[in-house]
Amino acid sequence: MDNNNNLISVIIPVFNGEKYIAQCIENLLFQSYKHLEIIVINDGSTDKTEEIAQKYPVKIISQENQGPYVARNIGIEKATGKYIHFLDVDDFINADFYQKMISAIEFADAEIACCGIIQEQHALKTTFDEQIIAITAEDKLNLCRVWFQGYLVKYLFKKSFLIDNNLKFYTGRFVADMPFSLQAVFLAKKVVTVPNAIYIYKHRQNSILTNPSKEHSKKRRTDYKFARQFCLDFAQTNGLIPMFEGKTIWTQYKLFGIPFMKKRVSETGRIRWYLFGLYVFQKKYI
Description:
Elements: E1 8-14, H1 21-29, E2 36-43, H2 49-53, E3 59-63, H3 68-78, E4 83-86, E5 92-93, H4 97-108, E6 112-119, E7 124-126, E8 133-134, H5 137-144, E9 155-158, H6 159-164, H7 177-187, E10 191-201, H8 214-237, H9 241-244, E11 248-255, E12 258-266, E13 270-275, E14 278-284
Parallel strand pairs: 1-2, 1-4, 2-3, 6-10
Antiparallel strand pairs: 4-9, 5-10, 6-7, 6-9, 8-10, 11-12, 12-13, 13-14
C-alpha cells in the first residue's frame, strides 16, 4: 500500500505557532504510515515558526497573513498527494491515524474517510465502533454528524474529488469549516467511517476561536451566522431539511467527575442550558 499512488498530503496552516509546530511535525514523523507529504503554510508568522519548521523534512510555503482558509486553499493547489488531510498545528492524532484512514478509504474506494474526534474543551468524544460505507445523503450526513460537527480535520479527502468539484474554502472568515464539510460529504459518492483513528481537538487560549477581544467575538458571531445560514440554504436547495428536523445535540459538563450541567443545541441554533436536569435559560447563538 505504501507507494506513490497513496501519498497523503498533510496541510498545516500556521500563524505564530512556534509553541506547537515542532510537536505537530514530530507527531506526523512518528506516524506508522510514512508516505506523507507535510506542507506547512506559514501564514505571515512573526515568531520563530518558520525557523523551527526548517529543521524538519517538510515543505514550507510562506505568505503574508491572509488567514487559515486562504492557506488551506493554497495547500490544496500545492499538494501532490492522492489524498489530503488538514491538520491544525496545536492538535494531535493517534500514532496509527493515517494507516487506519488510508486503509479504510482505499478498501471502500471512497472519496472521504471520517475519523473519530475528541473535543477537549467539553470532553466530547465521537468515535466509530465499525467501518461503515455510506452512500445515501442521509447516511453520509448523519454518520459524520456534519450539522453539529463541522470540523474539517475529521476527514481524509481524495484530492481529485476536491478538484473535480471545485471545492474551496470561503476566505476572510474565522469559521468556514462547516460549509466546506457539508458540501464535501453531500457530494461524495461514498464516505467511510474509520474506527481507531482519533483526532484530538485541543482548546487553546487566544486562538482565533477563543480570543476574548470584542473585535474577535463580533467577527466569530458574524461568521457563525454566515456558516449556519449557508448550511440552511444548502439544505433547502438540496432537499435536506427534513432529515435535520427535530435533531438536537447534547453536551454534558462534569465537575469532579459528576455531571452537573447539560447544553442542548437544536438545528435552529437555539441553545438551552440545564442545571442538574432543570431548565435554566436559553439563547440563540447565531
